[in-house]
Design a protein that fits this description.
The chain is an alpha/beta fold and about 230 residues long. The chain has helices at about 10-25, 35-45, 60-70, 85-90, 105-125, 160-170, 175-185, 195-205, and strands at about 5, 25-30, 50, 75-80, 95-100, 130-135, 140, 145-150, 150-155, 175, 215-220, 225. Helix 1 packs across helix 5. The mean pLDDT is about 90. One of its GO terms (molecular function) is transcription cis-regulatory region binding.
Protein backbone atom coordinates (compact mmCIF):
# COMPACT_ATOMS: atom_id res chain seq x y z
CA UNK A 1 0.00 0.00 0.00
CA UNK A 2 1.40 3.38 -1.02
CA UNK A 3 1.92 5.88 1.79
CA UNK A 4 1.05 9.54 1.27
CA UNK A 5 2.22 12.31 3.60
CA UNK A 6 -0.11 15.32 3.82
CA UNK A 7 1.32 18.34 5.64
CA UNK A 8 -1.19 21.11 6.31
CA UNK A 9 -2.05 23.19 9.38
CA UNK A 10 -5.76 22.86 8.53
CA UNK A 11 -6.86 19.53 9.98
CA UNK A 12 -10.09 19.67 7.98
CA UNK A 13 -8.13 19.56 4.72
CA UNK A 14 -6.11 16.54 5.88
CA UNK A 15 -9.31 14.75 6.91
CA UNK A 16 -11.09 15.54 3.64
CA UNK A 17 -8.21 14.37 1.44
CA UNK A 18 -7.78 11.29 3.63
CA UNK A 19 -11.35 10.24 2.86
CA UNK A 20 -10.74 10.39 -0.89
CA UNK A 21 -7.28 8.83 -0.80
CA UNK A 22 -8.21 5.96 1.51
CA UNK A 23 -11.08 5.06 -0.83
CA UNK A 24 -8.37 4.43 -3.42
CA UNK A 25 -6.49 2.23 -0.92
CA UNK A 26 -3.70 4.66 -0.08
CA UNK A 27 -2.42 5.00 3.47
CA UNK A 28 -2.41 8.63 4.59
CA UNK A 29 -0.02 10.07 7.17
CA UNK A 30 -0.95 13.55 8.39
CA UNK A 31 1.27 16.29 9.82
CA UNK A 32 0.29 19.77 11.01
CA UNK A 33 3.67 21.44 10.41
CA UNK A 34 7.09 20.91 8.88
CA UNK A 35 8.73 19.49 11.98
CA UNK A 36 6.00 16.86 12.35
CA UNK A 37 6.35 16.02 8.66
CA UNK A 38 10.08 15.38 9.03
CA UNK A 39 9.35 13.06 11.97
CA UNK A 40 6.87 11.12 9.81
CA UNK A 41 9.44 10.80 7.02
CA UNK A 42 12.05 9.60 9.49
CA UNK A 43 9.80 6.83 10.83
CA UNK A 44 8.05 5.72 7.62
CA UNK A 45 8.75 4.86 3.99
CA UNK A 46 6.69 7.55 2.27
CA UNK A 47 5.93 7.33 -1.46
CA UNK A 48 4.73 10.90 -2.08
CA UNK A 49 4.24 14.13 -0.11
CA UNK A 50 1.56 16.83 -0.38
CA UNK A 51 2.71 20.05 1.27
CA UNK A 52 1.05 23.33 2.14
CA UNK A 53 3.21 26.46 2.03
CA UNK A 54 1.80 28.68 4.76
CA UNK A 55 2.27 26.75 8.01
CA UNK A 56 3.47 27.68 11.52
CA UNK A 57 6.93 26.81 12.87
CA UNK A 58 8.33 25.71 9.51
CA UNK A 59 6.82 26.84 6.21
CA UNK A 60 6.42 24.60 3.18
CA UNK A 61 9.34 26.08 1.27
CA UNK A 62 11.74 25.20 4.10
CA UNK A 63 10.21 21.74 4.36
CA UNK A 64 10.74 21.09 0.66
CA UNK A 65 14.41 22.07 1.00
CA UNK A 66 14.88 19.66 3.90
CA UNK A 67 13.07 16.85 2.08
CA UNK A 68 15.30 17.30 -0.96
CA UNK A 69 18.41 16.95 1.21
CA UNK A 70 17.54 13.31 1.95
CA UNK A 71 14.61 12.05 -0.14
CA UNK A 72 13.77 11.66 -3.84
CA UNK A 73 10.03 11.19 -3.40
CA UNK A 74 7.59 13.20 -5.55
CA UNK A 75 6.41 16.40 -3.85
CA UNK A 76 3.14 18.15 -4.66
CA UNK A 77 2.62 21.67 -3.32
CA UNK A 78 -0.97 22.55 -2.45
CA UNK A 79 -1.21 26.21 -1.51
CA UNK A 80 -3.42 29.29 -1.51
CA UNK A 81 -0.42 31.26 -2.80
CA UNK A 82 -1.39 31.50 -6.46
CA UNK A 83 1.07 34.00 -7.93
CA UNK A 84 3.29 32.61 -10.71
CA UNK A 85 6.34 33.62 -8.65
CA UNK A 86 5.13 31.37 -5.81
CA UNK A 87 4.69 28.46 -8.19
CA UNK A 88 8.12 29.00 -9.73
CA UNK A 89 9.74 29.17 -6.29
CA UNK A 90 8.09 25.92 -5.25
CA UNK A 91 9.30 24.17 -8.39
CA UNK A 92 12.78 25.65 -8.06
CA UNK A 93 13.08 24.28 -4.53
CA UNK A 94 12.30 20.78 -5.76
CA UNK A 95 8.52 20.34 -5.97
CA UNK A 96 7.24 18.21 -8.84
CA UNK A 97 3.76 19.74 -9.08
CA UNK A 98 1.80 22.73 -7.73
CA UNK A 99 -1.93 22.90 -7.04
CA UNK A 100 -3.66 26.15 -6.06
CA UNK A 101 -6.20 26.17 -3.24
CA UNK A 102 -9.14 25.89 -3.12
CA UNK A 103 -8.94 22.68 -5.12
CA UNK A 104 -11.16 19.72 -5.81
CA UNK A 105 -10.07 16.60 -3.89
CA UNK A 106 -10.57 14.65 -7.11
CA UNK A 107 -7.94 16.82 -8.80
CA UNK A 108 -5.53 16.15 -5.93
CA UNK A 109 -6.22 12.43 -6.27
CA UNK A 110 -5.57 12.59 -10.03
CA UNK A 111 -2.27 14.44 -9.49
CA UNK A 112 -1.18 11.90 -6.88
CA UNK A 113 -1.96 9.01 -9.22
CA UNK A 114 -0.09 10.73 -12.06
CA UNK A 115 3.06 11.27 -9.97
CA UNK A 116 3.05 7.70 -8.65
CA UNK A 117 2.41 6.33 -12.14
CA UNK A 118 5.40 8.22 -13.53
CA UNK A 119 7.64 6.87 -10.79
CA UNK A 120 6.43 3.33 -11.47
CA UNK A 121 6.90 3.70 -15.22
CA UNK A 122 10.48 4.88 -14.82
CA UNK A 123 11.25 2.16 -12.27
CA UNK A 124 9.81 -0.60 -14.45
CA UNK A 125 10.76 0.65 -17.89
CA UNK A 126 12.51 -2.29 -19.55
CA UNK A 127 14.36 0.06 -21.85
CA UNK A 128 15.86 2.04 -18.96
CA UNK A 129 19.59 1.42 -19.16
CA UNK A 130 21.07 -0.04 -16.02
CA UNK A 131 24.46 1.56 -16.44
CA UNK A 132 26.58 4.61 -15.88
CA UNK A 133 26.23 7.29 -18.53
CA UNK A 134 29.31 9.49 -18.78
CA UNK A 135 29.25 12.85 -20.55
CA UNK A 136 32.25 15.04 -19.82
CA UNK A 137 32.62 15.18 -16.04
CA UNK A 138 29.04 14.03 -15.48
CA UNK A 139 28.56 10.44 -14.36
CA UNK A 140 24.94 9.36 -14.09
CA UNK A 141 24.28 6.01 -12.37
CA UNK A 142 20.81 5.31 -13.75
CA UNK A 143 20.17 2.21 -11.66
CA UNK A 144 20.81 3.95 -8.33
CA UNK A 145 19.63 7.42 -9.46
CA UNK A 146 22.93 9.01 -8.42
CA UNK A 147 24.66 11.83 -10.31
CA UNK A 148 28.30 12.83 -9.94
CA UNK A 149 30.25 15.71 -11.38
CA UNK A 150 33.83 14.64 -11.04
CA UNK A 151 34.10 13.22 -7.53
CA UNK A 152 31.24 15.30 -6.13
CA UNK A 153 27.78 13.80 -5.78
CA UNK A 154 24.94 16.09 -6.86
CA UNK A 155 21.56 15.79 -5.19
CA UNK A 156 18.72 15.58 -7.72
CA UNK A 157 14.95 15.39 -7.45
CA UNK A 158 12.78 12.70 -9.02
CA UNK A 159 11.81 15.07 -11.84
CA UNK A 160 15.44 16.01 -12.46
CA UNK A 161 16.29 12.31 -12.57
CA UNK A 162 13.68 11.74 -15.28
CA UNK A 163 14.88 14.78 -17.22
CA UNK A 164 18.50 13.65 -17.06
CA UNK A 165 17.59 10.10 -18.02
CA UNK A 166 15.81 11.36 -21.13
CA UNK A 167 18.54 13.78 -22.22
CA UNK A 168 21.68 11.89 -21.20
CA UNK A 169 20.42 8.64 -22.73
CA UNK A 170 20.16 10.53 -26.02
CA UNK A 171 23.21 12.84 -26.12
CA UNK A 172 23.17 15.52 -28.80
CA UNK A 173 19.52 14.77 -29.63
CA UNK A 174 17.28 17.85 -29.48
CA UNK A 175 14.01 17.40 -27.60
CA UNK A 176 11.23 19.93 -28.07
CA UNK A 177 9.48 21.39 -25.03
CA UNK A 178 6.39 19.43 -26.03
CA UNK A 179 8.33 16.15 -26.17
CA UNK A 180 9.97 16.81 -22.81
CA UNK A 181 6.75 17.79 -21.06
CA UNK A 182 4.70 14.88 -22.36
CA UNK A 183 7.48 12.39 -21.61
CA UNK A 184 8.28 13.61 -18.10
CA UNK A 185 4.83 14.72 -16.92
CA UNK A 186 2.78 12.37 -19.10
CA UNK A 187 0.20 15.08 -19.79
CA UNK A 188 -0.74 17.08 -22.91
CA UNK A 189 1.42 20.16 -23.51
CA UNK A 190 -0.55 23.34 -24.05
CA UNK A 191 2.34 25.73 -24.59
CA UNK A 192 2.96 26.85 -20.98
CA UNK A 193 6.68 26.13 -20.68
CA UNK A 194 7.30 27.77 -17.28
CA UNK A 195 7.48 24.38 -15.58
CA UNK A 196 10.10 23.07 -18.02
CA UNK A 197 12.14 26.28 -17.85
CA UNK A 198 12.25 26.18 -14.06
CA UNK A 199 13.48 22.57 -13.96
CA UNK A 200 16.05 23.21 -16.71
CA UNK A 201 17.31 26.29 -14.86
CA UNK A 202 17.55 24.42 -11.56
CA UNK A 203 19.41 21.54 -13.20
CA UNK A 204 21.86 23.95 -14.82
CA UNK A 205 22.57 25.49 -11.43
CA UNK A 206 23.62 22.03 -10.26
CA UNK A 207 25.69 20.74 -13.20
CA UNK A 208 27.15 23.83 -14.84
CA UNK A 209 30.08 25.97 -13.69
CA UNK A 210 28.27 28.98 -15.14
CA UNK A 211 24.55 28.41 -15.61
CA UNK A 212 24.31 31.41 -17.94
CA UNK A 213 26.90 29.86 -20.26
CA UNK A 214 26.12 26.14 -20.12
CA UNK A 215 28.50 23.59 -21.60
CA UNK A 216 26.23 20.58 -21.00
CA UNK A 217 22.56 21.47 -21.02
CA UNK A 218 22.09 23.55 -24.18
CA UNK A 219 19.09 25.56 -25.36
CA UNK A 220 18.43 25.22 -29.07
CA UNK A 221 16.58 28.44 -29.77
CA UNK A 222 13.15 27.87 -31.25
CA UNK A 223 13.39 24.10 -30.83
CA UNK A 224 14.13 22.85 -27.33
CA UNK A 225 17.01 21.38 -25.33
CA UNK A 226 19.79 18.84 -25.60
CA UNK A 227 22.75 17.55 -23.58
CA UNK A 228 26.21 17.37 -25.08
CA UNK A 229 29.76 18.17 -24.10
CA UNK A 230 32.49 19.82 -26.14
CA UNK A 231 35.90 20.63 -24.73
Amino acid sequence: MKKILITDDEQEIIELLTLYLEKEHYEVLGACDGFSALDVLKDNIVDIAIIDIMMPNMDGYTLIKKIREKYKIPVIVMSAKSEISDKILGLELGADDYITKPCDPLEVLARVKAQLRRCLEFDNNEEKPVETIIIGELKFHTDSCVLYKGDNQIQITSTEYKLLLLLMSNPKKVFTKKQIFECIWNEPFYGDDNTIMVHISKLRDKIEEDSKNPVYLKTIRGLGYKIEYKK
